[in-house]
């Protein structure tokens, strides 16, 4: 089962490679989408401090080493990053987006299988990450539309009398 533990972190590497590939086409949008993942992670850290739920590996055997006490379970940071990455990649490229969604689901499931998170931890993490990333994508799209409108040429026509 070690491959499950390694696979969860490897999926995060797959997301990084997808962002890198998308960088060549989308430049600033890819960078800002990646920044949305960082914002989602920061939000999840705040939620962890408020909720402070113990991990299942504290009371039951797990396949992965149990994180240090004080590293709370809810929400799953891996799932937050996976959900945010999948949503950001989806917004940039639909084909990569499908791959990212499957990878995100696999990463979240592996956290439950290895025994370091509850199911509700990973579901909340996926949802939180996706919502934060989606919100940032919407804001970026609105900003781009405003720029496009500002760059449009203005035509002034003489008034007919």
Automatic annotation (TrEMBL):
Q: Where in the cell is it found?
A: Cell membrane
Q: Please tell me where this protein is predominantly located.
A: membrane
Among Pfam families, the record links this protein to: PAP2
In which domain of life is the source organism classified? Bacteria
- All copies of the Phosphatidic acid phosphatase type 2/haloperoxidase domain together span 30-137
Q: SMART domains attached here?
A: acidPPc
- Transmembrane parts of this sequence: 6-24, 96-116, 122-140
Q: Which organism is it from?
A: Lentzea rhizosphaerae
Key word Hydrolase present in the record? yes
- Report what the protein is called: Phosphatase PAP2 family protein
As for membrane topology, the entry says: Multi-pass membrane protein
Keywords for this protein: Cell membrane, Hydrolase, Membrane, Transmembrane, Transmembrane helix
């Amino acid at each position: 089962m070690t491959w499950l533990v390694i696979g969860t972190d490897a999926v995060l590497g797959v997301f990084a490679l997808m962002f890198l590939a998308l960088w060549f086409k989308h430049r600033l949008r890819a960078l800002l989408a990646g920044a949305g993942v960082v914002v989602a992670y920061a939000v999840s850290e705040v939620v962890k401090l408020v909720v402070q739920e113990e991990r299942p590996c504290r009371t039951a055997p797990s396949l992965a080493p149990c994180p240090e006490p004080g590293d709370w379970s809810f929400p799953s940071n891996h799932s937050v990053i996976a959900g945010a990455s999948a949503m950001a990649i989806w917004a940039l490229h639909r084909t990569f987006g499908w791959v990212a969604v499957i990878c995100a689901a696999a990463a979240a499931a592996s956290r439950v299988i290895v025994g370091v998170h509850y199911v509700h931890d990973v579901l909340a993490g996926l949802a939180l990450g996706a919502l934060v990333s989606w919100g940032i994508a919407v804001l970026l799209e609105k900003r781009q539309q405003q720029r496009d409108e500002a760059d449009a040429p203005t035509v002034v026509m003489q008034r007919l009398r």
